[in-house]
Amino acid sequence: MIRVQTDDFDVAQILAGMRQNNPKVGAMVCFVGLVRDMNDSAEVTSLTLEHYPEMTEKSLHGIVSQAKQRWDILDAAVIHRVGTLQPTDQIVLVAITSAHRQAAFSACEFVMDYLKTQAPFWKKETNSQGARWVEAKASDDEAQVRWTQ
Amino acid sequence: MIRVQTDDFDVAQILAGMRQNNPKVGAMVCFVGLVRDMNDSAEVTSLTLEHYPEMTEKSLHGIVSQAKQRWDILDAAVIHRVGTLQPTDQIVLVAITSAHRQAAFSACEFVMDYLKTQAPFWKKETNSQGARWVEAKASDDEAQVRWTQ
Amino acid sequence: MQIKVLYFARIKEAVNYSSEDVVLPEEVETITALKHWLSKRGEVWANLFNGQLVVRAAINHNLVDDLAVIEDGDEVAFFPPVTGG
Amino acid sequence: MQIKVLYFARIKEAVNYSSEDVVLPEEVETITALKHWLSKRGEVWANLFNGQLVVRAAINHNLVDDLAVIEDGDEVAFFPPVTGG
């Protein structure tokens, strides 16, 4: 399941749906990204996410396909919100089910690392001084590159 | 929060409690281990978990302390069930919150790898042929050893 | 040839619109050539494409590098490095 | 010295009880020596501690290796490699 939406999502419901009545699932790894009130020392009051709709879902599907080719996983869910969010709001969920934990951990981290560097989302932060586009981080590029080595 | 219990646990409630009103949480990684109906090709009808009560919580606290020393994480929860479980039942939860995702992913996987090789739990599987103790897996030892290299 | 060009995030704000239809001269065949051609539109464009900012490109919704070849009818998008997740 | 010895999982089932108080002769000072001493109790014990099975040990709720030294009043536990999670 891949979704890009303005609405919030219910982690419990998604996880329940992925494992429901499936006794092949031995491991479930879930990542949730949240809006922090602090980024580079400026107090964030809101965060707006822009994206490139026609490309976003295609990009996420491509990332999940790569993960399925690399690891023996049963199912994957990616949900990413767009629009304006507040501190403590959920931004993104990646959940993976598999028979064994290592595939689930690796696939989940892989999807997040690729999403962070390849999926067309851009964050703009607002604080008391105004609004500014968030800078891409070299550490995210490094996190992605290690999967190709 | 570290708990060893016979009762089931509510993943959503635990995750909600860990992030509630804490705008420092940017990343949450959660692992859930579940009873599979299949292990080494025999159909499992139930799984019984024995443990060493006085040692179990001490062992889990020690593992979480090590994770907190190694990574910049905000909070950690470990819940492990004991007693008799059925396929699709939840066995274990490890959840980590942090500012950034890499610490949360690493700490969560570290805690699971150490729990699998150091915490005093033993699984006994029942299938149509009878009951047998689950063998430890070399792959779990290898998973743990890589953190020491 | 004619293509559609889309702009996102700070690039969209700099050029002040989100998409345009563009008729390209024959010699503009790659992303690099397109960046160079756009940079001659004026100061805003020159500043965007002078190489000091990283400007990523996609053709028909696939990330590409600057040597990628553009074809008639393509949808080309320019945007800063992504920051989702 | 006197210690308490606990058994878990398949080892508990083999020896058929879960704990006992044991008075050790002076020369039994380590886990290895305790395993050797217990193995002389009979066939079940010899089979457990003949080295063909991995038998892990804890002293006072800490995992230890076989060279660990036992002290008076300690709680020693023997169990197979753990399989939780």
Summary, kept brief:
Chain A is α+β, with helices and mostly antiparallel strands and 149 residues long. Chain A has helices at residues 11-19, 53-70, 101-118, 138-145; strands at residues 2-5, 27-34, 38-39, 42-51, 73-81, 83-85, 90-98, 121-127, 130-133. The chains are: A alpha+beta (149), C alpha+beta (85).
Describe this structure in words.
- The complex is a heterotetramer, with two copies of chain A (149 residues) and two copies of chain C (85 residues).
- Chain A is an alpha+beta fold and 149 residues long.
- Chain A has a single domain (2-148), classed as Aldehyde Oxidoreductase, domain 3 (Alpha-Beta Complex), CATH 3.90.1170.
- Chain A has four helices and nine strands, in the order E-H-E-E-E-H-E-E-E-H-E-E-H.
- Chain A has helices at 11-19, 53-70, 101-118, 138-145, and strands spanning 2-5, 27-34, 38-39, 42-51, 73-81, 83-85, 90-98, 121-127, 130-133.
- In chain A, a hairpin with a 2-residue loop joins strand 8 and strand 9 (130-133).
- In chain A, helix 2 packs antiparallel against helix 3 (101-118).
- The longest helix of chain A is centred in the middle third of the chain and has 18 residues, at 53-70.
- Chain A is globular, with a radius of gyration of 16 Å.
- Chain A starts with a strand and ends with a helix.
- The mean pLDDT of chain A is 94.
- Chain C is an alpha+beta fold and 85 residues long.
- Chain C has a single domain, classed as Ubiquitin-like (UB roll) (Roll).
- Chain C is built from three helices and five strands.
- Chain C has helices at residues 9-15, 31-39, 43-49, and strands at 2-7, 19-23, 56-59, 62-64, 75-79.
- Chain C has a five-stranded mixed β-sheet.
- In chain C, strand 3 (56-59) and strand 4 (62-64) form a beta hairpin.
- In chain C, helix 2 runs antiparallel to helix 3.
- The chains are: A alpha+beta (149), C alpha+beta (85).
- The interface between A and B is medium-sized, with 35 and 35 residues.
- Strand 2 of chain A pairs antiparallel with strand 2 (27-34) of chain B.
